[in-house]
Amino acid sequence: MTGDAIRAALVRRLRLTSNISEDDIKEIEALPISVRQFPAEMPVVRDGERATDCCLIADGFCVRSKTIANGKRQILSIHIPGEIPDLMSLFLHVMDHELSTLTPSTLGFISHETLQKLHRRAPNIAEMFWRDTLIDAAMFREWIVNVGQRPAPSRLAHVMIELRERLRIIGRVDGDHFEMPMTQEQIGEALGITAVHANRVIKQLRQEGILEFHRGRVTVLDERKFLELADFDDRYLHQSPTL
DNA sequence: TCATTAACTGAGG
DNA sequence: CCTCAGTTAATGA
User: Fold this and answer.
1) A121 and A17 share a domain?
2) How far is A68 from A234, CA to CA, in rounded Å?
3) Which terminus of chain A has fewer Cβ atoms in its 10 Å neighbourhood, N or C?
4) Quick check: A83 and A114 in contact, CB under 8 A?
């Protein structure tokens, strides 16, 4: 995949989630990007590392996570093509968590220097990145509520629906199914439960006729029950651009 | 390797 | 007594 295709992934998302102008699109299309391929389950930026670039996902799924002293890992967020998961490293240079791939991924790296110059030159783009970062924080608040307060089946349904609604924006929901390329171990790490319990929860949703989950693909069988279980309100995603 | 399930255990309501 | 969830272990795809 070329730099052009990677910039296109970002532009596509910004067109759908913000009021980006044609001039600003030209700015983004002129950004120097270095492209790198990563295999599945590979760290991209490690906890404690000093980042010099921000990472734009062109293709693949990534997660942000933290690992505690006893080795247990908490997955904090899931990221999809068109997103810049470590945008905050532009101002918080030393990573306080890890970014890693879930699937083989094509990533574009934009230097902090380039982005800082862009911020000064194009305040509208700076505002869009501000907005992205605030939405990121809103998603973390929702994640905390999810893991801290919802029962496990609702936790799973909520994470699934959030992922689906974000995939929908980039045109990656196909009818009643969408990709969630995670093992049950990883789902457990996202929900704060063991892999065995994640399996029990999936089994329960399957038996209740709500969904099917197989090889990283979710198929929704009963949308009404699914929504009710997830207790999902998309307000926190702030999807429509401010008008 | 990952998914599945049973059996047992304990916390907590 | 019931539900939820961790642990362990066996087995299947």
Assistant:
1) yes
2) 31
3) C
4) no
Each residue's pLDDT tens digit, A63-114: 999 999 999 999 999 999 999 999 999 999 999 999 999 999 999 999 999 9
Question: Is residue A242, in this structure, part of any structural domain at all?
Answer: no
- d(CA A182, C1' B2) / Å: 11
Neighbours of A181 (CB within 10 A): 15
Task: Check whether residue A162 and residue A85 sit in a common domain.
Answer: no
Q: For residues A148 and A26, give the distance between their C-alpha atoms in angstroms, rounded to a whole number.
A: 43
Structural domain harbouring A223: 151-237
CB A209 within 8 A of CB A137: no
Distance CA A170, CA A184 (A): 25
Domain limit, last residue, from A142, A159, A194: A142
Tokens of A29: 């299309």
Closest nucleotide (C1' vs CA) to A214 is: B3
- Do residues A72 and A93 share a domain? yes
